[in-house]
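ARCHIVE CARD
Drawer: 12
Card no.: 0347
Subject: one protein chain, sequence and derived structure
Cross-reference: see card 0346
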Amino acid sequence: MTPSTPAAPLQLLLAAQAPLAAGARQLAPGWLTGSEEARLAGMQNPARREEFIACRHALRHLLARGSNAAASDWR
């Protein structure tokens, strides 16, 4: 970034993990990519699986906020 180039606005999402994971469970099957599904399948710890799902759901919402696209468009 040069002094004449404006910085992109920073987006933060502060939310409890449980509601994000619950929202993700309401999504249609297939919202995770194949590689995300494979990573999730390899996770044995239920808490880690919940965290992964919640974070992926949050990430898509952040991407949607900055792009004028729906969260479901991000894969």
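Annotation on reverse: The mean pLDDT is 86. The chain is about 50% helix and 0% strand.
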